[in-house]
Amino acid sequence: MKIEEFSKYFEAEVEDINKVLKEIERLISLMPIEKDNIKLAAAGTFLHNFYNGIENILKRALLVKDIKIQNSPGWHKETLLKAKELNIIDTEIHIKLIPYLTFRHYFIHGYSFKLVSDDILSLLKETDIIFNKFNDAIMKFIREEKKKH
């Protein structure tokens, strides 16, 4: 994937992630969500969407570097780790995204009525901060890749 193509993809993905962040903000305004399975399920969906968007960006950033992640049971974790190893994201962002990766796995393979509201609330409240740092990292990655070409 060429950096110009990635840059356009990134812009479109950011637009979608920003829509998810607005929904998260709206959901937080409907607090409390504890013991409300419908709100917890909505929160889980938005957190899944949030991380899925980030992961989509990282997969394509790796393609810019000519790295293709093999479809294996651990590919989600490998994608995040490889992005850190190649300095697409830094260690701080990597560490902050691990709980979202973990949640994504739990959400996909579990039941929404088993979600823990305290865990979800802490993840929801960090999405803006994490996404701003992630966005800055990807913008830096794009600038650096464009300099190479």
Count of helices? 5
Low-confidence spans: pLDDT under 50, at least 5 residues? none
Helix percentage range: over 70%
CATH architecture: Up-down Bundle
Distance between the termini: 13 Å
Report the major sheet: none
* CATH topology heading: Four Helix Bundle (Hemerythrin (Met), subunit A)
What does this molecule look like?
This protein has five helices and no strands. With 149 residues, the protein is mainly alpha-helical. It has a single domain, classed as Four Helix Bundle (Hemerythrin (Met), subunit A), CATH 1.20.120.580. Helix 3 runs antiparallel to helix 4. The radius of gyration is 16 Å and the shape is globular.
Protein traits:
single chain; mainly alpha; Four Helix Bundle (Hemerythrin (Met), subunit A); 79% helix
Short description:
The protein is an all-alpha fold. It has 5 helices and no strands.
Write the layout of secondary structure elements.
Layout: H1 3-29, H2 37-64, H3 75-85, H4 91-109, H5 117-148
Helix pairs in contact: 1-2, 1-5, 2-3, 2-4, 2-5, 3-4, 4-5
